[in-house]
Write a structure and sequence with these properties.
Helices cover 19% and strands 46% of the residues. About 8% of the residues have low confidence. A hairpin with a 4-residue loop joins β11 and β12. It has a four-stranded antiparallel beta sheet with strand order 1-3-6-5.
């Protein structure tokens, strides 16, 4: 009964104007340029249909209703110098029944960032799993994860050149994996971002020790350790001889099984890697991602060994270095 009365009053008041009425419920007095803005729009409709929200901006919209009268829309966008203009329309079976425009009258503030500003405006930023590895005579490579909350992730700057991949995303909370080439003599880094909750810059110190083996395991950047393979081969060979002697004296089937397993491991470790020829102009990346740094462009056709495949890329070994090429051959 209350819905019927409400609908009657709404139609009576707005009959000569519009079938829908919309208003933002959580507008702030100001926002920062490049900030990720989340708005909640409440729309009341005098007629059944679908509420469709469009804009001259790239926006994300999620609209829900419980009674086909009151609609709630969650709208997200990155602020870029001006606020978006929103059009809210009532549609039924593809036919537009009504449309209104809504503007935002809040102010936009521009930051004057310090020199070491990383470009991020966020509610929170956390850095985990920092790893530093030797890369070449001039550079080390730094690998780390960053969790962002309501951040303009695409604007992130770290040591001018950064490779990254999305590791996990849950709503406005995202975790990205990054790698960056850094100076050889540097292992202390500062990430300075702007906290939009506290309205101030916050520094995150990053102190990393060089740890080659750990990085080799996690990001597959270092070449194959031949000495370690020789040691493994020697151990397996010694075990095979030991189990042969034990089988000779004890005649137990378990030793034959162990010998077969050890021989299988030896074959697997020493089986020749497949080879491919990289053509002139082929790009070799640090990591198997589309936006990863290209650290070498092939000048002449070069034969390389293929170690692995991942994310549409081939991991290759050449000149005692490891890189990644696109798996498009």
């Amino acid at each position: 009964m209350k819905k019927i009365i409400f609908l009657f009053l709404f139609v009576f008041v707005f009959a000569d104007e519009h079938l829908i009425l919309s208003k933002f419920q959580n507008l702030q007095k100001f926002y920062y340029n490049n900030q990720i803005v989340h708005l909640k729009l409440k729309t009341i409709s005098a007629q059944n249909g679908d509420i469709v929200i469009s804009s001259n901006y790239p926006i994300e919209v999620n609209t829900s209703t419980d009674d086909n009268i009151t609609y709630f829309s969650d709208i997200s966008f990155e602020l870029n110098n001006t606020f978006p203009e929103f059009n809210v329309s009532l549609e039924n079976n593809g036919i537009k029944l009504d449309e209104i425009s809504i503007n935002i009258n809040s102010k936009i503030r521009n930051l004057t960032p310090p020199n070491n500003f990383c470009g991020i405006l966020a509610k929170d930023v956390n850095i985990t799993n920092p790893i530093l590895s030797d890369y070449n005579s001039d550079k080390n490579i730094l690998y780390f994860d960053v969790s962002f909350k309501d951040a303009n992730v695409k604007d992130f700057i770290f040591d001018k050149k950064v490779d990254f991949t999305l590791k996990d995303k849950n709503g406005s909370n995202s975790i990205y994996s990054y790698s960056a080439l850094v100076p050889k003599n540097k292992n202390i880094f500062i990430i300075n971002y702007f906290n939009i909750t506290n309205n101030k810059y916050e520094k995150i110190p990053l102190n990393v020790k060089l740890n080659d083996e750990k990085v080799s395991t996690q990001v597959d950047l270092n070449p194959v350790n031949k000495t370690r393979i020789y040691i493994i081969n020697a151990i397996l060979g010694a075990l095979i001889l030991l189990w042969l002697l034990l089988y000779y004296y004890r005649k137990k089937l378990i030793y034959i099984i162990l010998i077969i397993l050890a021989i299988s491991c030896l074959i697997f470790l020493n089986w020749p890697k497949p080879e491919i020829i990289l053509e002139e102009g082929e790009q070799i990346h640090i990591l198997p991602f589309n936006n990863s740094t290209v650290f070498l462009v092939i000048g002449i056709p070069t034969k390389v060994k293929v170690l692995n495949k991942k994310n549409g890329y081939k991991e290759i070994l050449f000149n005692n270095k490891i890189g990644w090429v696109k798996n498009d051959r």
